[in-house]
Amino acid sequence: MQAIRNDFEASQFIAYVEGEVAGSLHYQIRDGQMWLLEVDVDRRGQGVDVADRLVQEALGEACHRRLAVLPLCHEARSHILAHPRYLRLVPSERRQRLGKYEPKLRKRSSGRTRASQQGAKGRFAAVSHPEEGGKAA
C-alpha cells in the first residue's frame, strides 16, 4: 500500500510503501510557481512507480493552488511530457524547452543518482539552476 504526504515545512512530498519512506520529491514555492527540484526514490519505491506518484501528487497540488510549475528535475519533465494535460501548468515561455534538459546521471552503488544523494544531505538552501539564469531567487 502506498501513501503520499506533503510535508509543507520541509517543502517535500514523501511517499510511503508498507509504512516505510520509499521516496520524496523536493520543491520550492516562489512567486506563484512551484519548482519541482528533485525526486529521490529508495529501492523499495522503484518497482511501484513511486517517482510518478510523487510527481503526480505535486502537479495536483500545484493545480489546486493555482501555481505555475517549473519542472527542474528529469522525472517531473518526463512526467509532464508523457501527460500533456499538465503542460498548461508550465509557463508558456518554458514549454518549448521541456525536452532539452535530459541529464545523464550515473547510478551509485546505493541505487540512487548522484543528485539524489546530494539532496538527501539537505543541500536545498540556495537553489541555482541554469534554467533560471543561474540566479537564486
Strand order of the largest sheet: 1-2-3-4-5
Report mean pLDDT, rounded to a whole number: 78
End-to-end distance? 38 Å
State the major sheet. 5 strands, mixed
Q: Over the alpha carbons, how many angstroms does the gyration radius reach?
A: 14 Å
* Tally of helical segments: 5
Quick rundown:
InterPro entries: Acyl_CoA_acyltransferase, GNAT_YJDJ. This is N-acetyltransferase domain-containing protein. This protein is α+β, with helices and mostly antiparallel strands.
Characterization of this structure:
The chain has 137 residues and is an alpha+beta fold. The chain contains five helices and five strands. A five-stranded mixed β-sheet has the order 1-2-3-4-5, with helices on both faces. It starts with a strand and ends in a 17-residue tail after the last helix. The C terminus is likely disordered. This is N-acetyltransferase domain-containing protein. InterPro entries: Acyl_CoA_acyltransferase, GNAT_YJDJ.
Could you give the topology of this structure?
Elements: E1 2-7, E2 12-17, E3 20-30, E4 33-41, H1 43-46, H2 50-64, E5 68-71, H3 74-82, H4 92-95, H5 114-120
Parallel strand pairs: 4-5
Antiparallel strand pairs: 1-2, 2-3, 3-4
Relevant terms:
137 residues; alpha+beta; Aminopeptidase; five-stranded mixed β-sheet; 5 helices; disordered C terminus
